[in-house]
Write a structure and sequence with these properties.
By secondary structure, the chain is an alpha/beta fold. The chain has a domain of 164 residues: 3-Layer(aba) Sandwich (Rossmann fold). The protein has eight helices and nine strands. The strands form two sheets. The protein has a six-stranded mixed sheet, with helices on both faces. It has a three-stranded antiparallel sheet with strand order 2-1-4, with helices on one face. It binds adenosine-5'-triphosphate. The site of adenosine-5'-triphosphate has 11 residues, from strand 2 and helix 1.
Length: 237
């Protein structure tokens, strides 16, 4: 899905949290959003994912304004996922059920993703009994199972053990490469951005300072601020 942002502003009680003149996400992209704490990464991803309204500005999706139909084609996964109070299996089946898939299709799709994400053994477990990392895996499985056209991830692998990170990154890469799902991912790990993202945007104080191919932004940034950040010298201010 192509997403175009123009003059997006978000103000929280007179505090300007976001000011983006123009930014576009091309269909099939895999963007990483990096920047210090409080830079506005979550706010921007929630606004693009329509979980929050911008104070001003416009976002178009494939050249059109947002419609409720689009809600079925995109999804946002948070670090602390909201799961339904039921089993893992039911949580993953849910997005397919509300989209009208048949019983057989649902069974096949859920079984496939349970297997690929290595969470088959916990499929009958109730969501509130899961560990934090297991819940994050289930949330990603639930987002991927219906093949959204736009997937927004806000630190999906924070607090995850290295083996599970590898599985989750494999699934995100595969979703992007094989299912052509457009991905926007907030991450605090520059290593993860290097491994996974084709392009990276660096945010600071509500603005996108610099955006472009991952290699360029992380190794040859043009802004002194980006350079400081990627070298680990930018303090929260
Ligand atoms: N609901 C809110 N009310 C008031 N201020 C808010 C609200 N949500 C976010 N902010 C402020 O907006 C700014 C941007 O926050 P945001 O969560 O987008 O940053 P972030 O880059 O995702 O940070 P982090 O890396 O710490 O998660 C911060 O200064 C934050 O305190």
């Amino acid at each position: 899905m192509n997403v175009l942002l123009r003059n997006i502003v978000k103000v929280y009680e007179q505090f300007p949290a976001l000011e983006i003149e123009e930014w576009s996400i091309k269909s099939g992209a895999l963007w990483g959003l990096i920047g210090p704490n409080g830079a506005g990464k979550s706010t921007l991803s929630k606004i693009i994912g329509r979980l929050e309204a911008a104070t001003a500005g416009e976002i178009s999706y494939d050249g059109n304004p947002y419609t409720t139909q689009l809600q079925k084609e995109m999804t946002v996964v948070f670090q602390k996922p909201y799961l339904l109070r039921t089993t893992v299996w039911e949580n993953i089946a849910y997005p397919l059920k509300i989209r009208g898939y048949g019983t057989k299709e649902i069974k096949n799709a859920v079984e496939d993703i349970l297997y690929q994400m290595e969470i088959g053994p916990i499929m009958h477990q109730k969501s509130w009994t899961l560990s934090g990392g297991e819940a994050q895996k289930v949330a990603l499985a639930r987002a991927l199972v219906f093949k959204p056209r736009l997937l927004i991830l806000d630190e999906p692998t924070a607090n995850i053990d290295p083996a599970a990170v590898a599985v989750m990154e494999k699934m995100i890469r595969r979703a992007n490469e094989e299912a052509q799902i457009t991905v926007l991912m907030v991450t605090h790990s520059l290593q993860q951005a290097k491994r996974l993202c084709k392009e990276v945007a660096f945010m600071h104080r509500g603005k996108i300072v610099e955006a472009g191919p991952t290699e360029q932004i992380l190794y040859h940034p043009s802004s002194a601020l980006t350079k400081k950040f990627v070298q680990g010298e930018l303090l929260i201010d």
